[in-house]
Amino acid sequence: MKNIVCALALPPEFLEGIRLAAPEYNVIAGRAKELDRDIFRQAEVIFGWSPAIIEECLHDDSPLRWIQLWTAGADYVPMDTLRKHDVMLTTAGGVHPVPMMETVFAMLLGFTRNLPQAIRNQDRHVWDSKGNYTELLGKTMGIIGIGQIGAEVARIAKAFGMRVLGVRRSVQPTDYVDGLYTFEQLNEVLSECDVVVNILPKTSQTINLYDENRFAAMKQGALFINVGRGASVKTDALIGALNSGHLAGAGLDVFDIEPLPEDHPLWSMDNVIMTPHIGGNTDQLKERATKLFIENLKAYIAQGRPARSIVDYDKEY
Asked: Could you tell me which of 89, 71, 70, 69 has the C-alpha nearest to residue 79?
C-alpha cells in the first residue's frame, strides 16, 4: 500500500478526514522528530517537514512525489533538489491571511495609539499622557507583495479609511487596492506611503531588498511593518533609518537572524515593536492547514497534481 506521512501532531478527527479522503493509502502520523526514518523512505506524500526528508527521501529510487508544507513560506526547502527528483511542493498559502492581517494591524494600532510607551509606563506605575497620537484614517499604505495575505490586509486597510497601493509582479486589478505597481516602480510607491507593509517571500531577488537606498526613498516619518521574511531587510540600514528619525517606527515579526540575539540593538529601541515570528499563528491553524491538505490530496489522487498553493520553482515561491 502507498504511504502518506503526516509529520505533525494532528488531532484524531483530522487524521480521520485524511484517511477518508485517501482510503487506498496508509496514513502514518506523528511528530517529525519521533517518526522512524524508514517511514520517510517509504512515503509517496508528506504533510509537514523534517530534515529527515532531505536525508532519506531525495534519491533516485524514492517513491516521494509530493510534499505539502505546514507553512506559507518555503525558503527553507531545497527547491533545486526537489525539482531534480520531480517532487511537487505546495505551501499552506491561504491558511494565514487572517492572523497575519491581525498582526499587521496590532502593530499599526500600537504605534498610532502609542501603546508601547503606555505599557512601559504601566510597568513603572507612571501616569503620562504625552506622546505622538495619530490615526490611520486618510493615510496611504503600501503593501509590497500582494498575495492572499496582502489582499486581506488591503481589505481591512480600506475599512480604516486608508488609501492602498500595492506592488507585485502582476498589475491586474485587485479588490481594495487603489493602485498596483511593478517592482521597477517600488521607490515611487515607497515615497508616497505613510505605512509600508512587506509581505515578500525570501528569494534570490528579495534578499536585502530594503537597504539604505530603499529606506531613504520612504516618506519621512513612515512606519515600516515586516511580516514577510527577515532576509529582505538589511538590518543595519533599518536601524540607521530608525535612529535618524527618518522612519517613525518599525513593526517586525521576522528577522535576518532568528532567534534574535540577546544583545541585538533592536531589543532596546523604543520605536520598534517585535514579535517572535508568530504572525501566522492561530488556534485555527491546524484545522485550516489540514483542510487545505485534504483538498489538495483529493486533487492529487484524481488528477496527479494538487489543486492549490503549488510552488513555482522558477519563481522560488
From this structure: 89
